[in-house]
């Protein structure tokens, strides 16, 4: 019997849904207070996951969900970068 590998699930901080890690995008805050998009999902730091959905990103920006999750003001460039990442640009 081959054991099926477990798919790592993470929670989207906006929709609160548990989704496979691959269908989410991670934003990381380092100890130094840097914030950046982490497409690999492997960088060190406090991470928050968002669904790969432009509407979810816009909602996160409007409601400041990420600011609260990572306890830091998130620059607009991060949201633009997330949207570009999702749209595959």
UniProtKB/TrEMBL annotation:
It comes from Gracilibacillus xinjiangensis. Residues 10-82 form the YlxR domain. It comes from the Bacteria. NCBIfam families: RNA_bind_RnpM. The lineage of its organism: Bacteria, Bacillati, Bacillota, Bacilli, Bacillales. This is RNase P modulator RnpM.
């Amino acid at each position: 019997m081959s054991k099926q590998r477990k798919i790592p699930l993470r929670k989207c901080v906006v929709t609160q849904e548990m989704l496979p890690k691959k269908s989410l995008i991670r934003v990381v805050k380092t100890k130094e207070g840097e914030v950046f998009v982490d497409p690999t999902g492997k960088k060190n730091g406090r991470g928050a996951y968002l669904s790969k959905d432009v509407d979810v990103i816009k909602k996160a920006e409007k409601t400041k969900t990420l600011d609260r999750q990572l306890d830091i003001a998130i620059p607009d460039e991060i949201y633009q970068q997330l949207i570009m990442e999702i749209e595959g640009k």
